[in-house]
Amino acid sequence: MATPDASTTVRAGGHSKASVVRVGPAAVPSRESPDEAVDLLLARGYDACEIEFGGGFWMGWDYADRLGNLARDAGVALSIHAPMAAFLGHAEYGGRKHRMAIGMLDHCAGLAVACGAAPV
Per the count of CB atoms within 10 A, which of 46, 75, 82, 116 is most buried? Predict the structure, then answer.
C-alpha cells in the first residue's frame, strides 16, 4: 500500500480523500491573458481560482486550454461557477428555460474539461 503524502489521507478500501485547503479568488484575475491570470494568482499567493460565469460566458476554448495547462503546471486548482440561469430548479421541465439551463451546464462542463476544472 502506498504511503499517503501530506495532501491525502487513505480511507478503508484504498480511496483517497483530499485534506488540503486551497485558497483563491472567485474570479480569474485577467480575462485578456491566461498567462497573466496564472502569474497574478501566483504573485498573490493563491493556489486555487474559481472561474466565474455568473455574468455570462466570456472564456473561449483556446483560453480555457491554455489556462488549464498553465494552472496545472503551477499547481493551481480551478473550479467553475456556472451562470445562475443554469440552475435547473427554477424552470419548468422541458420548457425553453429548462433547455437553455441544460445547454449552459453542458457548455460549463465542456469548458471544465478543457481547462481541467472541478467541480462545476
Answer: 82
